[in-house]
Design brief:
372 residues, alpha/beta, D-Maltodextrin-Binding Protein, domain 2, six-stranded mixed sheet, five-stranded mixed sheet, 14 helices, 11 strands, binds calcium ion
Length: 372
């Protein structure tokens, strides 16, 4: 063994001596070095579009933080110009803009692309699905991210989870919800699968952008709306248009937000810049969830004490019925789309285990905390 190493070392020395006497040999390592430093000296000017209104707190604010952090960490080598929804492309064209390479990056919610990719909804939130903690566990450590990347692959887009709202509120209603019958004929702004469940309960889901909600509710065009949580709902002034504020947000128990990266643009990056994006992504995700939690708890108090909002819990019977209808909606959607079924099966398997663990961890602790 020792002899073999000695022979190898001697061969290397011999090659080294040989290179020294050869012009081409000395030029080659130098050229490689130059290429490597040219690579790390290369700067990138990227564009990023989002589905959010300009200055939208936490959402757009988080994305701008993310871009600023990347610029600092890369010493200016990756400079991302962020555009809010409508500034460069309409909000709901964010996915297409990234897919077509019009821009390198995007931020939004995967359920916005349900018309194009029905299974994408699992990567934001589904009725009675995982909460923020569960979503993070499924995506990062439970195989969810691989499934997500698989369904975006043909579109030339690489997704990353970037931010989570935490459990949302059930929404604003202009009447009390005492039974499932109160949902019949109810016109409510509620997106995605939650809307399909409301329709199965006899209601009418309405889709509209954030900017139109207040006026529609105030004028009676809609009877109810969900938005986000106390902090964003208070800002939108929804308490002035409806009296009853219901919980929990059964339809959005922990909405994961997404970073979209154009696959070709990603491949053009040096490994250190890829690592910087990933690090800034994790850091911003943590910041966003912390902000939602901290700002919501203050806003809930404000809504109750300053605006005298009636905060109500949905009756158990209503929740039971919505849960039953959700299961039916999942079966119907699974029958229509093979990817939806595949991802629903994987999601459900993870959630079953997660629920069992939650019952003896978070849930049991919550019960202990509330015992008198
Ligand atoms: Ca919502």
């Amino acid at each position: 063994m020792k002899n073999a190493f000695r022979t190898l070392a001697m061969m290397l020395v011999a090659l080294g001596i040989a290179s020294c006497g050869n012009n081409q040999g000395t030029a080659q390592p130098g050229a490689e070095k130059a290429a490597a430093s040219a690579d790390t000296a290369k700067t990138y000017k990227w564009k990023m579009v989002t589905t959010w209104p300009p200055n939208f707190p936490i959402f757009q604010e988080g994305v701008e933080r993310f871009a600023a952090q990347i610029k600092t960490m890369s010493n200016g080598r990756l400079d991302i110009q962020v555009y809010a929804g409508g500034e460069l492309v309409p909000p709901l064209q964010t996915f297409d803009a990234v897919s077509q390479g019009t821009v390198e990056l995007g931020h939004g919610g995967a359920y916005y692309w349900a018309g194009k990719i029905p299974a994408a909804q699992f990567f934001t939130a589904i009725p009675f699905g995982l909460n923020a903690q569960g979503m993070r566990a499924w995506l990062v450590s439970g195989g969810g991210l691989e499934l997500w990347r698989e369904i975006y692959k043909d579109h030339g887009v690489i997704p990353f989870p970037l931010g989570n709202t935490g459990v949302q509120m059930g929404g604003w209603f202009n009447k009390e919800i005492n039974s499932v019958d109160d949902l019949k004929g109810l016109k409510m702004r509620i997106p995605g699968l939650g809307g399909k469940v409301l329709a199965a309960a006899g209601g009418t889901p309405v889709l509209m952008a954030g900017g139109e909600i207040y006026t529609a509710l105030e004028r009676g065009t809609i009877d109810a709306t969900e938005w986000v949580g106390p902090f964003h709902d208070e800002r939108l002034g929804l308490y002035r248009a409806a009296k009853f504020y219901y919980y929990p947000g059964w339809h959005e128990p922990g909405s994961e937000l997404e970073l979209l990266v154009n696959a070709k643009a990603w491949e053009s990056l040096t490994p250190d810049l890829k690592a910087i994006i990933e690090a800034a992504n994790y850091s911003t995700s943590l910041w966003m969830l912390a902000e939602f939690e901290a700002r919501n708890l203050d806003a809930l108090t404000k809504l109750q004490t300053e605006h005298h909002v009636q905060v109500r819990e949905f009756p158990d019977d209503v929740i039971r019925e919505l849960k039953k209808l959700s299961a039916r909606v999942y079966e119907e959607e699974s029958a229509k789309d093979a990817n939806f079924k595949k991802i629903y099966d994987a999601y459900k398997a993870f959630q079953t285990k997660n629920d069992a663990w939650n019952n003896v961890s978070e849930q049991a602790y919550r019960k202990a905390l509330n015992l008198q």
